[in-house]
Amino acid sequence: MERNQLRRQIGNMRQSLFDQGYLDHEQFIQLEELQDDANPNFVEEVVTLFYRDSVRTIQNIEQALEKSPLDFVKLDGYMHQFKGSSSSIGAKKVKSESTQFREYCKVGNAEGCRRTFQQLKKENAALKKKLEVYFQYSRQAGPLETACRPN
């Protein structure tokens, strides 16, 4: 695929992630603005770290949801951490499910927590797949070239 065509496709994929509500436009753009020539894969590295760390947090939540009675304070603490991490990469749907989960913790709704957690895992996995493809195409396209660099 021609490089310009690939760049257009990457742009369309990115816009689609915003349009479908997977990514928060403002947060993801802020993350991209931190990327530069010295660290051209910054966004991908941050997202990779998020998913690596999220495995442990999701396991902690799953284990806590298996206990009886549920420790809503502990569950809320885990989800607070997860929500913050997902917010940092702009994972909009994941953040929304995290917020809902925390609301269920506040009122002691075990079934609501379990149901919301299943949806959160689906949204998290869907975003991960979409971002993997996005970053794969981005790596193929290579860094953007500029005609002249500032001194």
TrEMBL record:
Residues passing through the membrane, by range: none
Q: Which UniProt keywords apply?
A: Cytokinin signaling pathway, Phosphoprotein, Two-component regulatory system
The HPt domain sits at 39-134
* Keyword Phosphoprotein included in the entry's annotation: yes
Record-linked SUPFAM superfamilies:
Histidine-containing phosphotransfer domain, HPT domain
> Which residue positions does Phosphohistidine occur at?
H80
Name its cellular compartments.
Cytoplasm, Cytosol; Nucleus
List, alphabetically, the GO terms of the cellular component aspect.
cytosol; nucleus
A Pfam family of the record is Hpt
GO MF terms on file? histidine phosphotransfer kinase activity; protein histidine kinase binding
Q: Domains: what does the record tell us?
A: Histidine-containing phosphotransfer domain (HPt) contains an active histidine that mediates the phosphotransfer.
What does the protein in this record do? Answer: Functions as a two-component phosphorelay mediators between cytokinin sensor histidine kinases and response regulators (B-type ARRs). Plays an important role in propagating cytokinin signal transduction.
Q: What is this protein called?
A: Histidine-containing phosphotransfer protein
